Amino acid sequence: MASTNEYARKILNSPTYAEPCLVYSAKKVLLPENWVFLTGKEHVDYRRGLNTLFTRKALGIYCNIQDAIARKHFAKWREAAAKDPSPQPIMMTARYLNMDTSLRVFCGNHIPEEAAIEISDKYWDITKALELVNFPFAIPGTKIYKAIQARKSAMNWLELAAKNAKIAMAQGAEPECLLDHWLVTLADPSYKGKREFTDHEMAMVVLSFLFASQDAMSSGLIYGFQHVADHPEIHAKIREEQERVRHGDYDSPITLEQYDQMTYLQAFVKESLRVKPPVLMVPYKATKAFPIADDYTVPSGSMVIPSFFLSLHDPEVYPEPEKLIPDRWLDPNSGANTNPKNYLVWGAGPHRCIGVEYATMNMALVLAIACTTFNIEHDVTPLSSEIE
């Protein structure tokens, strides 16, 4: 277990010595040919081709979808609250919002509404099958078996989405989602990463993106709501900034240009993720003897684990590290900004999260709309600080 920022980063940035070590069932569930299991140059090259999916031009397309889906879910929240005003658990509620958002950002209207609901429901079986300790065989009734069935169902819909996107783009439609943007980019003569992707390959990429969006992204959003509720002074500052940027027009979709002006909200999102990082560590396996320090070489086959929490709570970089202080990100001379290597929320190196901008923008847009729509209260219970 890496106990320092230096060692954590060394593991993350040493693809020739270590590779991500997911649970035994991962390849059975997510398919062994999935790009997330590629290593070395093959992984780097494939990933480089996917970077185009999260450019600023792409984010401009996604922004409108994120805004619309958040408002759709908030309308449902209001209806539910009118019927039952008692406090409700937010975990699965926020997860459904994120799943719906990501499915529409990735697939647009290339899959029907019932498909989005089915994938959202069944993907939870995939999450449960990837727990660290699990029965590893796909016997009917086990978590692995249920996850494989969920993956088959999701892949059928996602391959249909890829097929429909190809038809729409071939007919000259405007790109309205990630799949559309991907296809338009591939068709651009000036694009260097030109190659054909099958419906199956495109579906596998979306399948892998969905895992991150329903797991880590949902955790980040849930803690974001909790932090806003627990710090009314922060809620007030977010509202003040929204008034300043949006001039009281809370019904119109938030634009990418307006998002750029929400500096306090972005600082809050960054700080919320630092205090409660959705991912605490990622296990890696040494693929050969790994000279991690002058006086120690990790034996081949050993598990090496970069820990993110210690870097994100280093008191020398983040004074009062347990406190939620968004303003630390607004001071260019603060330790937070002068030590960017400590901010390991998204990992580092060749396996740094590819959708950083999308994930942070989604969290910010949801909270921007929520903070101007609702008064948010946290009904604290003995389970409030327990992580499920």
From TrEMBL:
<comment type="similarity">
    <text>Belongs to the cytochrome P450 family.</text>
</comment>
<dbReference type="InterPro" id="IPR002403">
    <property type="entry name" value="Cyt_P450_E_grp-IV"/>
</dbReference>
<keyword id="KW-0349">Heme</keyword>
<keyword id="KW-0479">Metal-binding</keyword>
<dbReference type="InterPro" id="IPR001128">
    <property type="entry name" value="Cyt_P450"/>
</dbReference>
<keyword id="KW-0408">Iron</keyword>
<keyword id="KW-0503">Monooxygenase</keyword>
<dbReference type="InterPro" id="IPR017972">
    <property type="entry name" value="Cyt_P450_CS"/>
</dbReference>
<dbReference type="InterPro" id="IPR036396">
    <property type="entry name" value="Cyt_P450_sf"/>
</dbReference>
<keyword id="KW-0560">Oxidoreductase</keyword>
<protein>
    <recommendedName>
        <fullName>sterol 22-desaturase</fullName>
        <ecNumber>1.14.19.41</ecNumber>
    </recommendedName>
</protein>
<dbReference type="Pfam" id="PF00067">
    <property type="entry name" value="p450"/>
</dbReference>
